[in-house]
What does this fold into?
Amino acid sequence: MLAVLGVVIFVVGLLVSIGLHEVGHMLPAKKFGVRVSEYFVGFGPTLWSRKGKETEYGLKAIPLGGYVRLVGMIPPEEAVKPVRGTGRIAQLIADTRAASVEEVHEGEDHRAFYHLAWWKKVIVMFGGPFVNLILAVLLFTVIMTGIGTPTAITTTVSRVLPCVPSAATECEPGAPASPAQAAGLEEGDVIVAVDGTPVDQWTDITAVVADSAGQELTFTVERRSTALDIAVTPAPYDRPQVDDNGAPLTNPDGTPVTKTVGYVGLVPVAEIESQPLTAGIQHTGDILVRTVGVVATLPTALYHVTMAALGQEERSTEGVIGIVGVGRIAADVASADLDGYETSMRIADMLSLLAALNLALFVFNMIPLVPLDGGHIASALWQGIKNGWARLRGLPKPAPVDVARMMPLAYGVFGLLVVMGGILIWADIVAPVTYG
It folds into this structure.
């Protein structure tokens, strides 16, 4: 049930992010006088719509995107240089242009998008990704300043675990009690020394325990202002080993690599402290740099994802993840039964997931290829360069950039996006990235 709730929360957050992205395009477009005929969140069959003064607002069945229809994005034939040729590409350009011109109502040509100054076009097209960037900053600020982040692991006991862990997620009947429970340690105990050696950090305790499987230790604790010496014998426990990236290590036969360490069954209290308001901006910048790196190496990342889906590689937790994978992680976060995983931490992780998703939407949409926002921004900037060069040479204002000529590229990019989405969905199902 919690997993389903996590997916629902994620889908709602995704729809809100997409909806606000499209608002970022729509509001400046209307401000500059462009007629916006449609505003929809989602694709496919229409679930609900309502006609406003001149804009139809609605929700579609597939929550994987959205759009606003800005009337007159493509200039008419008489405003640009003629397209040579009579083949399929020329026909595609002509059909696209005709459809765009048909949307312009009689007497409203002045409201067509192509008439806007180049800098206004940039504002309209950048508005959507900019909203996603601001959402990421706000979400990370809520996490780091409103909720807070763990700054230190104390030597205070948060929870005493009931048994020694095994392959089971819960204690099985007859499972041996954890050494901490058997010894009588309690929640709220403050460990001040182990075998007479003072401890200031939790790592001081775990280091001694890990090396003392089967050996009796004396824990000196403070319990309700009273000092107690409690004898604890760590149980041997085969701990799975991981590499520097956190990926499990395996033997040649596929079995996990383990190391026998001491185990007592204690969970420490983590101090949660509110961070300055600037921490959210700084963290956004850090994640943004990493996201740009992932997008910049997208072809390589997709290759490794495909190999993981084919069973030829381990799926990297640092690589690209599709919408199904992100939804699966949201379900894992909502339903995770982890020691010490408090509600505030669960909320922070859900918000962090949405913030990272908004950063991904920002970076991806800024790729300078149509039909992405970055492609339209690039064409507007090119228009500005052309206009400036004409002014310097004392020439008439040049014709608007003919977006219709970019349609073959746009269809090609769209096809690549569909293929990429299909690969990621397939990989997220057969070789998922899990949260733990």
In short: Residues 204 and 296 are 41 Å apart (CA to CA). The domain at 151-273 is CATH 2.30.42.10 (Pdz3 Domain). The two ends are 18 Å apart (CA to CA).
